[in-house]
Amino acid sequence: MNETKIGFIGGGNMARSLIGGLLADGVAAQRLWVAEPDTERRAGLAAQFGIHITGGNCDLVESVDAVVLAVKPQQLKEVCAEIAPAVRARNPLLISIAAGVRLTTLQHWLGGEPSLVRTMPNTPALVQCGATALYATPQVNNTQRELAEGIMRAVGLTLWLGDEDQMDAVTALSGSGPAYFFLIMEAMQQAGVQLGLSADSARLLTLQTAFGAAKMALESREEASTLRRQVTSPGGTTERAIGILQQGELEALFARALTGARDRSRELAALLGDK
After folding, report:
1. Is residue 271 part of a domain?
2. Dihedral (C-alpha) 54, 55, 61, 62: value to the nearest 10 degrees?
3. Strand, coil or helix: what is 35?
4. Do 40 and 118 have their domain in common?
5. Range of the domain at 241
6. pTM of the entire structure?
7. pLDDT tens track for 51-77
8. pLDDT tens per residue across span 156-175
9. For the stretch 38-53, what's the b/e string if a residue is b when 16 or more beta carbons lie within 10 angstroms of its beta carbon?
């Protein structure tokens, strides 16, 4: 990635996060480009990062080796139609971070056989703690795969999928996953207040406990089930709480919730593909 030029179409939060991560990884600012139609946002990007800024998507495609499509899914068809001739002329690596847009849909919008990587990052990427799944078309070579992985790894963990259909499960698990944990934190904070803690104390204890549990799980070779049993003493307070949660069929509830999210991901992908 030493000499590769990387461009972003769209200068929103995820693009900013990736740019910040790449700069922190040692990528030179002069190798990064952003195409952003909003004048005020362009000025902010230039001031914050000192990178190349343009208002023209085609100008960017003609200047870089890899293009990150960082616009909303609803805007992607229009962007693809605009850049399609430049893409066919230069064949840069294209990396989509648009949720729910399948590679076959992107290929149809762009025409030809572009080198495409579809990714599903999640919002913790905004603090360089994201989890991103990637899937590539056969046109993507090993060097381009390494490049795509390097770009997304700047904001957290990366994982290649063997089947694009798995992207719907990824969307349900890690794409939507932060909201599940936020809901659990919210519930724990409310319960702590009901038990007599101040709101500030309940919040601080909940957030640090969530962070500590995640850190323990990441740094341990044990499964989550084993870690849970290790902190659940027979006849103790944790066992009582876990028993109540399991009586409420928490595991089955999560299974239904993630299945619903996966099914909705499939529905949205079909709707976007039909447009």
Report:
1. no
2. -70
3. strand
4. yes
5. 175-265
6. 0.91
7. 999 989 999 999 999 999 999 999 999
8. 999 999 999 999 999 999 99
9. eeebbeebeeebebbb
